[in-house]
Amino acid sequence: AKDAGRNNYQFYESRLSTLVSTRLTLENRLRRALERQEFELYYQPQVDIASGDFIGLEAMLRWNDPDEGPVEPDVFIPVAEDSGLIVPIGAWVLRTACAQAEAWRSKHLIDVPMAVNLSARQFDEASLLDIVADVLEDTGLPADRLELELTESLIMRNPELTADVLDGAKRLGVMIGVDDFGTGYSSLAYLKRFPIDRLKIDRSFIADIETEPDDAAIAETIIAMAHTLRIQVLAEGVETVGQLRMLRGWACDAYQGYLCSRPLPADDMNALLKGLRAA
Ligand code: C2E
Ligand code: CA
Ligand code: CA
Ligand code: CA
């Protein structure tokens, strides 16, 4: 039994050091990726449920490591957050997304808000609003064509700071969206204290609305309550016509998901937008 215990210990110790060294390597690779500009943004349309029009685009960070191939955002973004690298990476995302939005606007391909995801670490930087203001000025994108997406947990983590930063963002004129709604601990009534334009129901609640009455009830209730508070609602991760039909029945405003399009590289989105304009 003693031996087994020691073996176990050695097993965990070596597992732990593997985890730690993997993490360090990934962090160093991320640092290098930023220097070598290995990041790219993909864009996913946000669709008005009643009209089918594109009413927004969301920028999604992608990393194609030249040695290891594409790395999932859910793998590298937490490491970027823990190491603080998300601050310079996030500034790059903001600038690139706004420049792209303004390029499509000036070509008359699309003129809708560009949604950009923000991490808590970026939110904690006193310079966040200065960066946003600089990027808008440098790119020429009107403030109301930028939407900052914050998760519910980021908002609830420090409500005082959140209120200050969001009020500042509203003074600049940018839109505010709540991402992954339903996964954190908050209520719509509480969220109403913040200047929120829109909330996005998390994909985990949408996935099974066709088969799980509880999920359907949750989604329907979120939509109804948000509308009572005059907040727009977008459903994330819509993949089927059946889901879309149910959301339409509940008067959900907009959706995002593979049913319309996966996130696309800028060139592919450009082609899609040109096709839509020609049609
Ligand atoms: P998110 O903001 O909730 O983004 C939605 C995620 O769902 C994206 O995954 C998107 O590709 C995926 N998705 C969209 N439609 C569907 C669908 O119909 N079905 C399914 N199964 N998935 C769908 P992705 O691109 O892997 O991003 C994962 C997360 O990484 C994002 O979740 C966001 O939290 C974070 N992220 C992405 N880009 C950035 C960024 O620039 N900055 C920060 N801080 N976080 C980012
Ligand atoms: Ca998002
Ligand atoms: Ca989300
Ligand atoms: Ca998510």
Question: Beta fraction of the residues?
Answer: 15-25%
Bound molecules: ligand C2E, calcium ion
Order of helices and strands: HEEEHHEHHEHHEHEHHEHEEH
Helix content: 40-55%
Question: Quaternary arrangement of the chains shown?
Answer: single chain
| Helix-strand category | alpha/beta
Which descriptor suits the 3D outline? globular
Largest sheet: 8 strands, mixed, barrel
Strand arrangement across the biggest beta sheet:
1-2-4-5-6-7-8-9
Q: Rg to the nearest angstrom?
A: 21 Å
Please give the count of helices: 12
End-to-end Cα distance, whole Å, is: 73 Å
Organism: Denitromonas halophila
Domain EAL: 23-277
Protein name: EAL domain-containing protein
Overview of this structure, please?
This is EAL domain-containing protein. It comes from Denitromonas halophila. The chain is α/β, with parallel strands linked by helices. The protein contains twelve helices and ten strands. Strands 1-2-4-5-6-7-8-9 form an eight-stranded mixed beta barrel, surrounded by four helices. Helix 1 crosses helix 2 (73-83) and helix 3 runs parallel beside helix 5. It is globular, with a radius of gyration of 21 Å. The chain starts with a helix and ends with a helix. The model has no long low-confidence stretch (mean pLDDT 92). The site of one calcium ion (CA) has 5 residues, from strand 6.
